[in-house]
């Protein structure tokens, strides 16, 4: 098997089809002398003349005739095996895709992605997993197909594609006095705050921004995720500062109002990351393209936040 040359099968197939060294050479874009040398190698390998002179032409030997259909089938299968893969239509995809994303993105982007999958790729199962250690190994090992969020240093081999920018907004209950009138910096700073922190931290960069303006805020509740923060705000007069994408979805699901933060908090970039071995995987291509398209639709359709 160490001396096996599959090109000999391709050449033999061409010789048997054409019955001529010259025409077989043209078929494979080779010179006639090169094809003649290949025929000699085929004869040596098979221990059979393969093609013999008959008048002005060549005719196959009985051994060659017996091998003709088998050689043709092997060449066809090898060609199909080594050819570039044919893209699988989304409707025919069957697979579980694991998406790592924080709870602030799932209510809007996750829901839209789920609905699009049901419409275009019903054989897919979407498994959303919470952010945690955000380790690169999960992407490398294939435990996570796609990571969506604010991306840190993930390693040079990880693909990162920018989805767009997001900013912060204030969530208040619709019945709260802070839902009416202009939300000034003074009213904002003197409100009670609910903070979402997986590690239970009471401080975040907002505190430093307020302190530079001469204000110190009061944190009256700390919860592990944004959905819990929104639920508490909806039933109290406390407020929460959350990403705008999440604020829009929370305001649609709960009795909340979304308001602009009365100081400059800056924007942040949201991106999706994956391992390059999935670059051409049909299900992964559909997933990445759909996520990017849905994010663009969300930003385009977003209504301006009022002060």
UniProtKB/TrEMBL annotation:
The keyword DNA-binding applies. It comes from the Bacteria. Pfam families: HTH_1, LysR_substrate. Keywords: DNA-binding, Transcription, Transcription regulation. Residues 4-61 form the HTH lysR-type domain. PANTHER family: HTH-TYPE TRANSCRIPTIONAL REGULATOR LEUO-RELATED, TRANSCRIPTIONAL REGULATORY PROTEIN. Belongs to the LysR transcriptional regulatory family. This is LysR family transcriptional regulator. It comes from Corallococcus praedator.
């Amino acid at each position: 098997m160490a001396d096996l040359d599959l090109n000999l099968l391709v050449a033999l197939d061409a010789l048997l089809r054409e019955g001529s060294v010259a025409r077989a050479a043209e078929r494979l874009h080779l010179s006639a002398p090169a094809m003649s040398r290949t025929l000699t190698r085929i004869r040596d390998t098979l221990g059979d003349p393969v093609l013999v002179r008959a008048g002005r032409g060549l005719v196959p030997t009985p051994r060659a005739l017996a091998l003709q259909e088998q050689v043709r089938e092997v060449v066809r299968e090898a060609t199909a095996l080594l050819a570039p893969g044919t893209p699988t239509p989304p409707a025919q995809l069957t697979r579980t895709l694991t998406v790592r994303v924080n709870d602030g993105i799932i209510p809007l982007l996750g829901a839209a992605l789920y609905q699009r999958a049901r419409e275009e790729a019903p054989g897919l199962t979407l498994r959303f997993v919470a952010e945690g250690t955000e380790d690169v190994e999960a992407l490398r090992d294939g435990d996570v197909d796609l990571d969506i969020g604010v991306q840190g240093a993930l390693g040079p081999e990880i693909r990162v594609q920018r989805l767009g920018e997001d900013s912060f907004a204030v969530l208040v209950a619709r019945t709260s006095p802070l839902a009416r009138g202009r939300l000034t910096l003074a009213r904002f700073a003197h409100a009670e705050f609910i903070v979402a922190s997986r590690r239970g931290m009471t401080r975040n960069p907002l505190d430093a921004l307020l302190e530079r303006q001469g204000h110190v805020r009061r944190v009256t509740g700390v919860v592990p995720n944004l959905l819990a923060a929104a639920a508490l705000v909806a039933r109290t007069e406390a407020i929460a500062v959350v990403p705008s994408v999440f604020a829009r979805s929370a305001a649609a699901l709960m009795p909340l109002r979304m308001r602009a933060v009365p100081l400059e908090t800056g924007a942040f970039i949201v991106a999706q990351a994956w391992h390059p071995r999935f670059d051409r995987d049909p299900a992964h291509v559909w997933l990445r393209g759909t996520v990017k398209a849905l994010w663009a639709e969300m930003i385009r359709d977003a209504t301006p936040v009022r002060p």
